[in-house]
Design a protein that fits this description.
406 residues, Carbamate kinase, VC0802-like, 4-stranded antiparallel sheet, ATP binding
Length: 406
C-alpha cells in the first residue's frame, strides 16, 4: 500500500465533467489498495471572479482579514464538491477545511501572505492518518492556512502546490502528483512552438529556474517543500489516470536560493562601440561576442542603445579586447568608433524575493543616490540585480546595497 498526495489545479476541475473525471481517478487509485490525500484549488476562475466582485463592490475598503475569508470560498467550495463526488462513486470521503479539527496547515497571522509554521503543521498533518486508516479519502483545501487565533489565512501564489508538497513531507507519502492542464513539463510552450516535447524528467533545480522565469506549470516557492525522498510528478488531467507517467521531478532541493551581495574582486573595464543605427543591423552583437569568445575574453554585461553598444569586461583583458574590437570597427561599414572607458566596480545582488518585490530597484538605488554614488549601468533579472559603479565607490556601494538586501 502506498500513500499518494494528488493535487488538482483549478483548470483540472474546471467544470462538472472534469471534477467527476478527477474524482474517478482518485477512486481508481484507492481501489488499487493505495491511500490518497486530495488537495484541490479553487474551481477554474473562481478566485479571479471573487477578486473582481470585491473590486467592483467595495474595492479598497475591504480589510485583509475580510479578503482572505472571501478568497477562501473558492477552495471551500472545491473540497465540498470533490468530496461529494468521490462518495457518489462509492468511497467514503471527508473534506478538510480550516474549520476542521484535523486541519493540517498552520501559519502566522499575516492573512494574505502567510508564512507556514513548519513544526506545528507537521504535527497537525499527522491527524490525517486517523482518517486515512479508516479507509476515508480526505480532500484538503489548497492555498489556505489557519493563523494563531484560528483566523483563515492564504499562502499567496502557488499556495496549493505548497500544500501538496508539505503534506507529502509531513505524511511521508510515497508520491506527490500535481494534476494540471498539460502533459508535464515541456521543452517550451507548446502553444508557441508545435514541436515542443514533453520531458520525461526534470531536476528540482531546473524546475525551480524554469518556474521562476515564467513557466506556469508549478510555482517555484512550492519546490522548497519537496522532500528529496518522495517522488513527484506533473501529469495532465486529460487522461483521468494518476498513474500516468507525466514528467518526474527528480533530485533534492538544494536549499532556498541565498540572498547574497557580491563585489567582484577585480576592476571592470568598459568598451563602448558606436555606429549610426547599429541596432538595426542584424548580427552585429553576434560579431562582437564571437570575436571576444574566440579569444577567451569573458563578457560580464552588455548594454545596447540605438547607436551604441557598451561591453563590460575584466580590466586585465581590456587592452586585448580594445584592439580586437578596433579591428572589427575598421572593417565594418556600420560602425564608426570605439573607446576604452575608465575602471569600474561590479556589484551583484541575488535574492529569490526579487521577482515578487515591487520597487526593489528603487530600494537598491536610493541609498546610492543619497550618497552621491553614480550608477554607470544597471541590469536585472527575476532573481538578480547587477550594478556597475565607479571603482572608487565600489566598497561604499557594496556596504549600502548589502544593508538593503539584509
Amino acid at each position: 500500500m502506498e500513500l499518494k498526495i494528488a493535487k488538482f489545479g483549478g483548470t483540472s476541475i474546471g467544470n462538472g465533467k472534469k471534477i467527476r473525471k478527477a474524482a474517478q481517478s482518485v477512486v481508481n487509485e484507492y481501489m488499487k489498495g493505495n491511500k490518497v490525500v486530495v488537495v484541490v484549488s479553487a474551481i477554474n476562475k473562481t478566485t479571479d471572479n471573487l477578486i473582481k466582485i470585491v473590486k467592483d463592490s467595495v474595492d479598497s475598503n475591504v480589510t485583509d482579514k475580510q479578503m482572505a475569508e472571501i478568497l477562501s470560498m473558492g477552495e471551500m467550495t472545491s473540497v465540498r464538491v470533490m468530496s461529494s463526488v468521490i462518495e457518489s462513486l462509492g468511497v467514503k470521503s471527508e473534506y478538510i477545511d480550516p474549520y476542521s479539527d484535523e486541519w493540517p496547515l498552520l501559519t502566522n497571522n499575516k492573512v494574505l501572505e502567510a508564512k507556514i509554521d513548519f513544526k506545528a503543521s507537521e504535527l497537525m498533518s499527522k491527524e490525517l492518518n486517523r482518517i486515512l486508516d479508516q479507509g476515508i479519502i480526505p480532500v484538503v483545501c489548497g492555498f489556505l492556512g489557519k493563523g494563531p487565533d484560528g483566523e483563515i489565512t492564504t499562502l499567496g501564489r502557488g499556495g496549493s502546490d505548497i500544500t501538496a508538497f508539505l503534506l507529502g513531507h509531513s505524511l511521508n507519502a510515497d508520491e506527490v502528483i500535481i494534476v494540471t492542464d498539460v502533459d508535464g513539463v515541456m521543452s517550451t510552450d507548446p502553444n508557441k512552438i508545435q514541436k515542443a516535447k514533453k520531458l520525461d524528467k526534470i531536476s528540482v533545480e531546473e524546475m525551480r529556474d524554469l518556474a521562476t522565469h515564467g513557466a506556469q506549470v508549478l510555482h517555484p516557492h512550492a519546490l522548497k517543500y519537496k522532500d528529496p525522498l518522495i517522488n513527484a510528478k506533473i501529469i495532465s488531467h486529460e487522461y483521468g489516470d494518476l498513474s500516468n507517467p507525466g514528467t518526474t521531478i527528480v533530485g533534492p532541493y538544494e536549499g532556498e536560493m541565498m540572498k547574497t551581495t557580491i563585489l567582484y574582486p577585480e576592476p571592470i573595464s568598459v568598451v563602448a562601440i558606436v555606429g549610426d543605427g547599429m541596432l538595426k543591423k542584424p548580427g552585429l552583437l553576434s560579431k562582437i561576442t564571437t570575436i571576444l569568445a574566440k579569444n577567451d575574453i569573458n563578457i560580464f554585461g552588455i548594454s545596447a542603445g540605438q547607436n551604441s553598444v557598451t561591453i563590460f569586461i575584466n580590466k586585465k583583458n581590456s587592452d586585448e579586447a580594445y584592439h580586437l574590437l578596433h579591428d572589427m570597427v575598421i572593417d565594418s561599414e556600420e560602425l564608426s568608433s570605439l573607446s576604452l572607458g575608465k575602471e569600474i566596480a561590479m556589484l551583484t545582488l541575488v535574492s529569490p524575493d526579487f521577482i515578487e518585490t515591487p520597487g526593489i530597484i528603487s530600494d537598491i538605488t536610493v541609498p546610492l543616490r543619497e550618497n552621491n554614488i553614480n550608477i554607470v549601468e544597471i541590469s536585472s533579472s527575476q532573481t538578480a540585480v547587477v550594478i556597475f559603479v565607479e571603482l572608487a565607490d565600489g566598497e561604499k556601494a557594496f556596504e549600502l546595497v548589502k544593508d538593503v538586501l539584509e
